[in-house]
Design goal:
The structure is a single chain. 47% of the residues are buried. The strands form five sheets. Strands 5-4-13-14-15-12-16 form a seven-stranded mixed β-sheet, sandwiched between helices. It has a four-stranded mixed β-sheet with strand order 9-8-7-11, with no helix packed on it. A two-stranded antiparallel sheet has the order 1-2. It has 419 residues and is an alpha+beta fold. α2 crosses α5 and α4 (117-124) packs across α6. The chain is built from 15 helices and 17 strands. The chain binds flavin-adenine dinucleotide. Flavin-adenine dinucleotide binds next to β12 and α15.
């Protein structure tokens, strides 16, 4: 029996209907070629993929200078490029030293868990441009600020996703492909295939366990079973009542896995006007609050869609404004990058994941200093008859749909083995 709090399946993955059968995603969206599990599932479910639009030139708009460029290397002054390349090499090298399934067992785990990602950035860069890159990296990948997480956590997550370029890249990276019909189709098709339908509108409030089994209380429905898998974001797992209470270390783990903050915004135009201008629609820059964009148009190329994000501190600040003020700030940022046409869209659609009762922040959880080494070892450890899944428990592509899938299979295998 699958109990789902919302009135829909998909969780952090959600389609939005654009009309004429076209959709955009308000949550999880892209899959990359190194995400083997999700690619296999997409094929099994008979879904088709199409490449993220990536033809033309990107824009870098930094410190008042606008440059168009192709390829992966941003047109920065030589000193900044060297600084960036050296710091990235150093970071990727450290990341590779973290054991994927047990970051707390890394050779210098305690040392790296004492410091924040922010202090590492400060010590390892000399130029404002390199620091800006790392700040945007943290916000884009973790939806939080470098000061919010430990260096060990940032390294572990980066290794889990195959390195910095793999995480931020389009071609060969995590943003390479999209799903025709929208990514939520993965969850919908999986749910349709279940013999016992997902029980919607069933928020689990309490889990009691005894020697013979568990009792799971979800408002209208009470389920008795031999075992249960809790597969919700850590912050929400900590809000379920457990009887008996969770062991101290498990509870403190949940207290130390806060979610990031993100508002995902799709801005819809009659046509993707930037394409005619020879642009990919990919922008990076410091015209805050928007720091980067992608072309998110459906495969037919109409309407034109620019997707952008308010992440970390920007999501917290702009999330407090009313929608009209936020929209104004976002559109003026986009117009700065893409010209005045960007300020006059046909529609504007946003989703604030921190405000969602059954998510409370995205893209996933992160860990502040000290958390990984002190509480990480119980991340996947069952508590009696309760097993733990969800993308945050994955060793590979943790934080992504791919990690969510493998975490579910790992937890299911535990249950089958336990009998
Ligand atoms: C804006 C955004 C962009 C993203 N982009 C990407 C991307 O491009 N590629 C990628 O791979 N990933 C991306 N992600 C991350 C990806 O969506 C998640 O990693 C993945 O969906 C997590 O799956 P999950 O099953 O672990 O958790 P969830 O999707 O959060 O599923 C948990 C489910 O449990 C339900 N629930 C919560 N509490 C209870 C309760 N008490 N009782 C019953 N049910 C409950 C929730 O409603 C939800 O359906 C993005 C996420 C966001 C928000």
């Amino acid at each position: 029996m699958v109990l789902e709090a919302r009135d829909r399946v998909g969780g952090r993955v959600l389609n939005h209907d654009l009309g004429n059968g076209e959709v955009v995603e308000l949550g999880g969206e892209w899959i990359g070629p190194a995400q083997l599990r999700v690619n296999k599932l997409v094929a099994e479910l008979g879904l088709e993929t199409f490449p993220t639009y990536n033809e033309g030139e990107n824009i870098l708009d930094l410190h008042g200078k606008v440059k168009r460029y192709t390829g992966e290397i941003p047109p920065l002054p030589k000193a900044a490029l060297v600084d960036l390349a050296q710091s990235q090499l150093r970071f990727d090298r450290l990341a590779k030293r973290i054991p994927l399934e047990a970051p707390w067992a890394a050779d210098r785990a305690e040392r790296w868990d004492e410091e924040t990602f922010a202090t590492w950035i400060r010590r390892n860069t000399r130029t404002a441009s390199a620091r800006f890159f790392w700040e945007v990296f943290a916000e884009a990948v973790f939806a939080t600020e470098p000061a919010d997480m430990s260096l060990l956590f940032a390294l572990a997550y980066t290794h889990s996703g195959g390195g910095v370029n793999s995480l931020i890249g389009v071609r060969d990276g995590a943003q390479q492909d999209r799903i025709v019909g929208g990514t939520q189709l993965i969850a919908r098709r999986l749910a349709d295939a279940l013999a016992e339908p997902v029980r919607l509108n069933a928020p689990v409030r309490r889990i009691a366990q005894g020697p013979d089994g568990v009792t799971v209380d979800a408002d209208e429905v009470v389920v008795r079973a031999r075992r249960t898998i809790v597969s919700v974001p850590p912050v929400l797992a900590g809000r379920i009542a457990y009887d008996p209470a969770l062991p101290t270390r498990r509870d403190q783990l949940l207290q130390n896995m806060p979610a990031g903050s993100v508002i995902k915004i799709n801005v819809i135009y009659d046509e993707p006007f930037w394409r005619a201008d020879g642009l990919t629609g990919q922008v990076a820059g410091d015209r805050t609050p928007i720091k980067f964009t992608f072309d998110n148009s459906p495969p037919v190329g109409r309407p034109g869609v620019i997707v952008c994000f308010l992440e970390g501190a920007q999501a917290r600040v702009f999330g407090r404004l009313d929608e009209a003020e936020r929209r104004q700030a976002v559109l003026s940022s986009l117009a700065g990058y893409l010209g005045p046409r960007a300020a006059d869209p046909a529609a504007y659609v946003e989703q604030d994941w921190s405000a969602e009762e059954w998510t409370r922040g995205c893209y996933g959880a992160h860990m502040p200093p000290g958390a990984m080494t002190q509480f990480g070892p119980v991340l996947r450890e069952p508590v009696g008859r309760i097993h733990w899944a969800g993308t945050e428990t994955a060793g590979v592509w943790s934080g992504y749909m791919d990690g969510a899938l493998t975490s579910g299979e790992r937890a299911a295998a535990e249950v089958l083995a336990a009998g």
